[in-house]
UniProtKB/TrEMBL annotation:
This is Glutamine--fructose-6-phosphate aminotransferase [isomerizing]. One of its GO terms (cellular component) is cytosol. It is found in: Cytoplasm. Its main location: cytoplasm. Residues 43-182, 215-356 form the SIS domain. Its EC number is 2.6.1.16.
Length: 366
């Protein structure tokens, strides 16, 4: 059942080229410039004309929401707020007419997310679901929604569900941007074509496995890790840190790279591994200076870079290359080596990667 893999988590990491493809199969028709999202038909207009989008989720799904915030704001010019479901539900949130709430959940059973949706509904919001489990409570409570179709995720640490969530959210944003006219036709077409190449790029990113394993060997006994990213890669840093914490029990923090100088930089010394997601995008020059700041304090830098980067490898201790893509799609590719890094470190530390202590696959209690 693990398909020859030692753990479900590793199987699910390696399934991602397929699960992403399954997610857009029948929906993304790049040649015709078409996106068919049957799950949001009735509310497609409401979404296009939304004054505001509020995303509610927990954990990894909340990280997917953060990426979606950047995507919706850039593509659709709709203001987005991303809320922890547990915070949203307990503070009498302001919901106005024309607000759309999107709930993101792999299991579709997360108690706080479900309660946040019920609350938003009671205040008159239209609630859409992005869910992996067909027929789950969250899918039933939402007005409409889009399934991620990543297949069953058994490992407690979410991997393929995350990249499928990103795929769905990107498709929704592209659909809305196209309807709304906030994205030029040519750019829309090129993004559809680029989205179609992501499974192959993820496949290539998976080829870093051996190299990542060697790095894992060197850092498996670290007590702390920092993960830094900017722009679209900031949520990737948060997600990388969460993956490491939950399965290897190493303390890790994700930060927007520029925030480092406002506090966390005090932690950096030769003992501190710092994973920097530094792919070539619009914040590239800025992240290069953040790397310099870490190196000046003797931190050990592991950088995730775009293929062919010749500058960063001269500055850092280790580089892992991933194929380049559009800034907004990079999280799907850049997250792969971080999943592998946490997996290998956890295995080397003798941890139960598929069922980490204190964690459950679906959190049905608040
Ligand atoms: C992290 C993880 C959790 C879940 C969170 C939300 O790897 O698995 O943080 O992402 O409990 O779960 P869902 O998406 O099922 O609502």
């Amino acid at each position: 059942e693990k398909g020859g893999f030692e753990h479900f988590m590793l199987k699910e990491i390696f399934e991602q080229p397929k699960s992403i493809k399954d997610c857009f199969r029948g929906r993304l028709i790049a040649n015709d410039g078409k996106l068919v999202l049957g799950g949001i038909r009735e509310y497609a207009n409401a979404l296009t004309n939304a004054n505001r989008i509020v995303i509610v989720a927990c954990g990894t799904s909340w990280h997917a929401g953060l990426v979606a915030e950047y995507i919706f704001e850039e593509f659709c010019r709709i203001p987005v707020e991303v809320e922890y479901a547990s915070e949203f539900r307990y503070r009498n949130p302001i919901i106005s007419e024309g607000d759309i709430v999107i709930a993101i959940s792999q299991s579709g059973e997360t108690a706080d997310t479900l309660a946040a949706m019920e609350l938003a509904k009671s205040k008159g919001a239209i609630v859409l679901g992005v869910c992996n489990v067909v027929g789950s409570s969250i899918s039933r409570v939402s007005h409409e929604g889009v399934y991620t179709h990543a297949g069953p995720e058994i490992g407690v640490a979410s991997t393929k569900a995350f990249t499928a969530q990103l795929t769905v959210l990107t498709m929704i944003a592209l659909r809305v941007a196209h309807r709304k006219g906030t994205m030029a036709e040519q750019r829309y077409r090129s993004l559809l074509a680029e989205l179609e190449t992501i499974p192959a790029k993820v496949e290539k990113a998976l080829k870093t496995d051996d190299q990542v394993k060697k790095i894992a060997e060197l850092f498996k006994d670290a007590r702390n890790f920092l993960y830094l990213g900017r722009g679209y890669n900031f949520p990737v840093a948060l997600e990388g840190a969460l993956k490491l914490k939950e399965i290897s029990y190493i303390h890790a923090e994700g930060y927007p790279a520029a925030e480092m100088k406002h506090g966390p930089i005090a932690l950096i010394d030769e003992e501190m591994p710092v994973v920097v997601i530094a792919t070539r995008d619009s914040s590239y020059d800025k992240i290069v200076s953040n790397i310099q700041e870490v190196k000046a304090r003797k931190g050990k830098v592991i950088a995730i870079v775009s293929e062919g980067d010749s500058l960063i490898p001269t500055m850092v201790d280790f580089t892992i290359e991933v194929p380049g893509t559009h800034d907004a799609l990079m999280p799907m590719v850049a997250t792969i080596p971080l999943q592998l890094l946490s997996y290998h470190i956890a295995v080397m530390r003798g941890c139960n990667v598929d069922q980490p202590r204190n964690l459950a696959k679906s959190v049905t209690v608040e």
